[in-house]
Amino acid sequence: MASALSRVLATLRTATVAAALILPAAVVAGPVSAQVTGAQVTGAQDKAAAGAAMAGAVTEDGGGADNPTAGTPGPANRLFVQALQLIRQADNTFDVAEESRLLKEADKLFNEIVTKFPDSPLAVQLVTNQFVGDFDFYEFRSRIRALVCNDALSSLCFLHRVGEMLPPVETPINAARWDWLSLAVAYQQLGDSGRAKEIMAPFVSAVRRGGAADSSGQDLFVARALSLMGQTPLALDITRQINDCSTRIYNLADIAKAASWRGDAALTNALADEAKSYASSHNCAWELGLVAQTLLRAGKEAQARTLFLNTVETQFSKFKETLGDCCPPELAVAAADIGEPKLALGLLSTVQDENPWTIPAVLGRLAKRGETGMAVAYAEQVADIDTRGEAFAELIEAAMKRGEPAAANDLMHRLNKLVDDAAGRRPGLLAQRAKAEKAFYNDDRWRRSFQQAINAAEKASNFVRRDIGAPLLAALVRIETGLPMLD
After folding, report:
1. Whole-angstrom Cα distance, residue 175 to residue 209?
2. Which of 26, 35, 118, 417 has its CA 20 to 30 A from that of 481?
3. Which of 105-109, 173-177, 277-281 has the highest average model confidence (pLDDT)?
C-alpha cells in the first residue's frame, strides 16, 4: 500500500485533474451549474492551469459523441473523470482489497477510453503514456502491476520486484538484453503471457530489422528466449538466418533442449541432426561440444560419444601445437553428460576461470550420474562463494533425485553456512538456497529465502542490481518449473 505522503500527493493530483476536466463544462453550462461560486471556480482553475488547457483540447473532441458547444463533456472525458474519482477513493482507503478493487475498476475505464474512443486525444495520451494534466498514466500502470505484491510472497510479486530493479531498455533497441528476455520467459512460464509478449515484442521487432545483435552482429538471445516461450517456428526462422557458427549452433541446441523438455522427441531428433550437419558443412570447431550434448539429448548416444572423443583428440592436439587455450567450455559439460568424470573435471579446471557457469553445470551432471563424492570435493575448492553456493544447490537436487537424503542434508548444512557467513548480503547465494530448499523440502518455505534474496538485491549497489536480475529469474524459473533457464 502506498505511503501516507504518496497517498496525499496522488489525491491532490487526482483532484486537480478531475477539476480541470469538469470545470470548463460547468462554466459553460450556466445557471444549472451555478452552485459553484466564481471564487471556487477561479481557485480550482488556478490549481489546474495545465490540466485545464489540456481539458479544453479534449472537450473539443469529447470522444466524438457529445456536443461540446452545449457545455457537455464528451464520453471519453466522463470515463476519465470517473476513473480519477476511483483512484481518489483508492488513495483514501487503508483496506488492501478495496484499494486493489478500485484501482482495477479505474484501469478498466482507462482501457474503455482506448478501445471505444480511439480517436479522442485522451486515448492517444493514454496509449503513449503521456501526462494528462498532472496525472501520470505510466505511474498508474506501474501501480496496477504492483498490486500483485498484495501477496508479498507470490512468484508474480517476485517477478515484479526483479523487473523494477532491471536497468531500463534503451530505445531504439540495439542489444538483445538477456535480463529482460529472462523476465519475459519467466512471465510466460508463470502464467502471465500478456506481460511476456509485451516485453518480448520490441526485441523480436529489433531482430527483424537487424537492430538487436551481439558484438559479431548476430542475434544471441532472442531466438533462445522464444524457444523457451514455446514460439519454436519463430525461433527457428530467426536462427536459420544466422550464419555464425557459435550463434547458429547455440540456438539450435537450445531450441532442441526446449523441445525435449516439452516431450517433442521428433523435433529434438531433427534439430540434433540439423546442428550436426551445419557444424560439419561449415567447419565449426569448438561448438561440437554443443552438438554432442544435443545428440545425446536426442538419444543418439553412439554418435554423441564418437563426435565427442574425436573433438577432444583434435582440441588437445591443437593445444599442444599452439600452446593456446585448451578447450571450449562446452566440452567439459559434454564430458559430464556422456559419463567421463575424470575428463570432465580435467577440462573443467582449464575453463572454469573464464567460464564459471561451467562449475555447477558440470558438477550437477556428475552428481546425477552418481559421482557425488568427487563433485562435492571439487565444489569445496571453488573460491567464489556464489558459484560454490550454486554448485551446492545443484548437488542437493541431484542427491534428492538419486534418493540420497543424508547426502542432501549434509550439503544443505554447507550451503546454509555460506549464507550465514555472508550475513544476508549476497542475493545470488540466497536465491540458490531458495532453489535448494525447494528441491530438499518440496514445499513453500523457499519463498522466504527468495524474498530475502530480493530484499538484499534492492539494498545492494547499482553494480550488483545491474547484474543480479537474470540469475534471480533463472533461479525462480527453476524453482517453479523444475527446468533451468538456458545456460
Report:
1. 12
2. 417
3. 277-281
Q: Give the Cβ contact number of residue 182 at 10 Å.
A: 26
Q: How far apart are CA 145 and CA 104, in angstroms?
A: 10
**How large is the C-alpha radius of gyration of the chain?**
28
Which carries the bigger pLDDT value, residue 200 or residue 217? 200
pLDDT cut 70: percent of the chain above it: 81
Collapse the DSSP code of 136 into the 3-class scheme (helix H, G, I; strand E, B; otherwise coil) and give the result: strand
Q: Find, among 398, 399, 394, the residue nearest to 379 by Cα.
A: 394
What's the DSSP call for residue 262? T
CA 390 distance to own-chain centroid: 20
C-alpha count within 13 angstroms, C-beta hemisphere, residue 185: 32
pLDDT at 321 over 60: no
Question: What integer pLDDT is reported at residue 316 of this predicted model?
Answer: 75
**CB contact burial 10-39 (16+ within 10 A = b; e otherwise):** bbebbbbbbbbbbbbbbeeeeeeeeeeeee
Provide the 3-class DSSP secondary structure of residue 209: coil
**Residues sharing a CB contact under 8 Å with residue 458, sequence separation 6 or more, in sequence order:** 161, 165, 465
Contact 453, 390 (CB under 8 A): no
Global pTM value: 0.78
Residue positions counted in the chain: 487
CA triple 420-421-424, angle to 5 deg: 55
475-479: list long-range contacts, CB under 8 Å, 24+ apart: 475/431, 475/432, 475/434, 475/435, 475/450, 476/155, 476/158, 476/159, 476/162, 476/186, 476/431, 476/450, 477/182, 477/185, 477/186, 477/189, 477/190, 478/435, 479/434, 479/435, 479/438, 479/446, 479/450
Could you identify the residue written with the cell 519467466?
A: 186
Cell 547426502 identifies what position?
Answer: 407
**Which pLDDT value is given to residue 74?**
84
Asked whether the beta carbons of 121 and 57 are under 8 A apart, the reply is: yes
- What does the pLDDT read at residue 398? 97
3-state secondary structure at position 131: strand
Q: How far is residue 96's CA from residue 103's CA, in Å, rounded to a whole number?
A: 11
Helices 301-322 and 329-338: crossing angle in degrees, nearest 10, is 140
Lookup: cell for 461: 549497489
Q: What is the mean pLDDT of the chain?
A: 84
Per-residue model confidence as pLDDT tens digits over 17-51: 444 444 343 333 333 333 333 333 334 334 333 34
- Grid coordinates standing for 132? 494528462
Q: pLDDT of 243-255, one tens digit each?
A: 889 899 999 999 9
Residue 70 pLDDT > 60? no
Specify burial of residue 160 (Cβ count, 10 A radius: 0-12, 13-18, 19+): buried
